[in-house]
Amino acid sequence: MSWKPGDRREGTAAMIRVDQAGEYGATRIYAGQLAVMGDRTPMARMINGMANQEERHRAFFDAMIARRGVRPTALQPFWNVAGFALGAATAAIGPAAAMACTAAVETEIDLHYQRQLTELGDSDPELSQAVAEFREEELEHRDTALAHGAETAVAYPLLSGMIRLGCRAAIAISKRI
To answer: What range defines the domain where residue 17 resides?
Structure first.
């Protein structure tokens, strides 16, 4: 059964597509941040550690897309540029803004993964297990970002709100396109 506009369930193919796109976008955000910050500071080393986890998540979904024959999002080139630009821009503002970006993105990913777990129930144990595991790591990233000054970023509520809105739009679009 394939997903059609108006269906209540998005289907596992759409879940895998959007999850792969999201994890890819996360790797690009961190790449943008590291391109601006360099790799020698404690903050950059911390970001690099989170980036490595995101790369592992992306690799899992890349393999799942191939194994299950899921069409990836056609917007991958856009997420490549947009993710890198978001990471670079927030890092250019400063370390607190980079952390605000991480906190905002991971807040939305937590909500997204919670919804997926509820929808999946027992229907796809492989996907459910991965989503649950990755969600825990995303929550660690959010908590790390908050502990390292995310909320002290200039105009934090506005910055966070804009990034969260962008994440929600990216999720909705990547499910379908």
So the answer is: 11-176
